[in-house]
UniProtKB/TrEMBL annotation:
Alphabetical list of InterPro entries matching this protein: Cyt_c-like_dom, Cyt_c-like_dom_sf, Cytochrome_c-type_DH
Signal peptide positions on this chain: 1-17
Annotated GO MF terms: electron transfer activity; heme binding; metal ion binding
Species the sequence originates in: Fertoeibacter niger
UniProt key word Iron: yes
Name of the molecule in the record: Cytochrome c
Highest taxon above the source species: Bacteria
Domain (Cytochrome c) ranges: 37-145, 186-292
Length: 292
């Protein structure tokens, strides 16, 4: 009978340890202290990170794509995620957020209220972002039109509704180290930053395991579409036999060497990257040719 109290104590200690280990882990307060954002620089970060592609209203076109009202639906094996309003509205969007709160959301996946965000928001990639870029991004976001559309709750079933469990997911999969390492040229290093961090290319082009973590050993080798419809192609050096110039042309115009054109979500990616300097698209191309 003495074993029962001991087992109960061990269970209690185990639960306490799990609760502690899965707690949200925000940035230290000093991480963003003294940073001042530049909206002009932030616009480039905005396009590189693809913010409008997910957070504009469904079917928005033209200037309406800068109204980040949210509402787009993203179906996955875990449920349907609905992009939230990230316009500068202080009530419905993120207009009342501080820089520290935006940095915690983007690089740690932690909400202003101290809860875990779902990794459908690609903070696993943004965790590598330079905090100055986050400051610049916030400065640009603050210039965009506010919108009062309320964010909608995600459509998830149990147990995916337990946000605390995401702390365990982060322990397993949230890293701030680079996938491609070694001796890189300045252009390849810049391309790595754009592709692995801001552009979060791996989120779509890398397969995932049963828990939704990226299989980094198969980096950019292609993956099933999360919607269940078809596959997303590989873009590593073995999968993509285009030259660097052909990759740059695709990221600029959307046209492939075979005169096909980008469609679906990739059309938004191309439209975003086409707004970046030519040197950035060339850097991405150099990086992709470096991916083993």
């Amino acid at each position: 009978m003495r074993l029962l109290p001991a087992a109960a104590l061990l269970a209690l200690l185990g639960a306490g340890a799990a609760w502690y280990l899965t707690a949200p882990s925000p940035l230290p307060a000093e991480a963003t202290a003294g940073l001042t954002g530049d909206a002009t620089q932030g616009e480039a970060v905005f396009w590189a990170a693809g913010c409008a592609s997910c957070h504009m209203a469904p079917e928005a076109t033209g200037d309406a794509q800068l109204v980040l009202a949210g509402g787009q639906r993203f179906a996955t094996a875990f449920g349907t995620f609905i992009a939230p309003n990230i316009s500068p509205s202080p009530e419905a969007g993120i207009g009342g957020w501080t820089l520290a709160e935006l940095a915690n959301a983007m690089t740690r996946g932690v909400s202003p209220g101290g809860a875990h965000y779902y990794p459908a928001f690609p903070y696993a990639a943004y965790s590598k972002a330079d905090l100055q870029d986050v400051a610049d991004l916030k400065a640009f976001l603050d210039t965009l039109p506010p919108d009062a559309t309320p964010s909608q709750p995600h459509e998830l079933g149990f147990p995916f509704t337990i946000r605390r469990s995401l702390g365990g997911w982060k322990l397993l999969f949230l890293r701030d180290d680079w996938v491609v390492t070694g001796d890189l040229t300045p252009a390849e290093t810049r391309g790595r930053y754009l592709a692995e961090a801001l552009g979060h290319c791996g989120e779509c082009h890398t397969p995932r395991n049963a828990l939704g973590g990226l299989k980094t050993a198969q980096w950019l080798q292609g993956a099933p579409n999360p919607s269940g419809q078809g596959n997303i192609p590989g873009i590593n050096s073995a999968s993509l036999d285009w030259s660097e110039d052909e990759i740059v042309e695709y990221l600029t115009s959307g046209f492939t060497p075979d005169f096909d054109s980008a469609g679906g979500h990739m059309a938004h990616v191309v439209a975003n990257l086409a707004r970046l300097p030519d040197t950035d698209r060339a850097a991405i191309a150099a990086y992709l040719k470096k991916v083993p």
